[in-house]
Design goal:
globular, Rossmann fold, 326 residues, alpha/beta
């Protein structure tokens, strides 16, 4: 990885106490980078615990940060990494999503443009909908399947159409991220985390039955990416100058839920016990049967990092984190 001199500071990270954000802050701390401002809502016990071993100069509550942002009273910064958002795919209050995921992001974009600082933000692979047109960033006809995905799509489209952008303006479409520090996410936590708890509770993993003739039960596929690989990509763009564009962040390889379950049982040293259950009717028409990041654009930007296999990622996550957490 890079030397500390490759980074300027300070860095503002919205969602810095959350899943990806806390892993990013830890990685920067491990490299000797401590001039970090975290923006988040620390009402969660788990979020507070994620930050206990981390070092950062200042914490902003999200509401206070938005006021300082709009009044242009933020401390001088080198970059803003905008990870804070409502990521609940079952949230149907579109007005809330438009404010939290779109208007808020626009305010940060404008601030970065006016202040001449880097802007890196989290988008989502959810914008691709059912993937009928593939998973390439150049695809323009997209049909997001839920309000959360729609909100992410709307901001991406707004950024794409802007003629003037911050010199570094990067959107990252995260695929299925899993790894440490997702305890607070509840039902939105990764399938790896949920399956681990299912095995602990009843010795079995429950997967949805398939309602698509192309896929057997449990053979539905996702592009699963370990959170440490996501952090590496963010740090790559943090070092770049004059980078602009939207980039997929996935492993580039689709794996089945059956593969995930088998890797989990092996990591936990448990006998395989997979049960297939009915999918909720409300989800059937909006279900993604296949996702796989096209990484050509990311590679063309110069990113040469490798990606953790699901077997290795689950092993590390289970044995080095989940089984060590009280």
């Amino acid at each position: 990885m890079s030397n500390i001199k490759d980074y300027s500071s300070p860095i503002i990270i919205t969602g810095g106490a959350g899943f990806i954000g806390s892993n990013l802050v830890k990685s920067l701390n491990d490299k000797g980078i401590f001039d970090i401002y975290i923006v988040d809502d620390l009402n969660s016990h788990f979020k507070k615990s994620y930050l206990e071993k981390l070092i950062y100069i200042k914490y902003f509550d999200k509401k206070d940060f938005r006021k300082l942002l709009q009044n242009k009273q933020l401390p001088k910064a080198e970059s803003i990494i905008h990870l804070g958002a409502c990521s609940d795919t079952t949230e149907y209050n579109m007005q809330y999503l438009l404010d939290n995921n779109v208007a808020y992001s626009k305010d940060i974009f404008k601030y970065c443009l006016d202040s001449g600082i880097k802007f890196i933000y989290a988008s989502s692979a959810a914008v691709y909908g059912d993937g009928v047109n593939g998973y390439n960033e150049n695809v323009t006809k997209l049909w997001p399947l839920n309000p959360y995905a729609k909100s992410k799509y709307l901001f991406d489209e707004w950024v794409i159409k802007k003629s003037h952008k911050p010199s570094t303006c990067v959107g990252l479409r995260f695929f299925n991220v899993y790894g440490p520090n997702e305890f607070h996410k509840g039902k939105m936590a990764s399938m790896v985390f949920q399956a681990f708890n299912q095995v602990n509770d009843n010795g079995a993993i429950r997967l949805f039955k398939s309602y698509n003739k192309k896929y057997a039960d449990g053979a539905q596929q996702r592009d699963f990416i370990y959170v440490c690989d996501v952090v590496d990509v963010i740090e790559f763009f943090l070092k770049q100058k004059n980078s602009t564009g939207i980039f997929n962040v996935g492993s580039g390889k689709a794996r089945s839920f059956n593969d995930l379950a088998k890797a989990l049982f092996k990591s936990m040293q448990k006998d395989e016990n997979i049960q297939y259950i009915a999918m909720p009717k409300s989800l059937i028409a909006k279900y993604q049967y296949f996702t796989q990041a096209d990484l050509d654009h990311l590679r063309s930007a110069g990113y040469k990092g490798s990606f953790t296999t699901i077997e290795e990622g689950i092993r590390k996550y289970v044995q080095e984190y989940l089984q060590k957490t009280p």
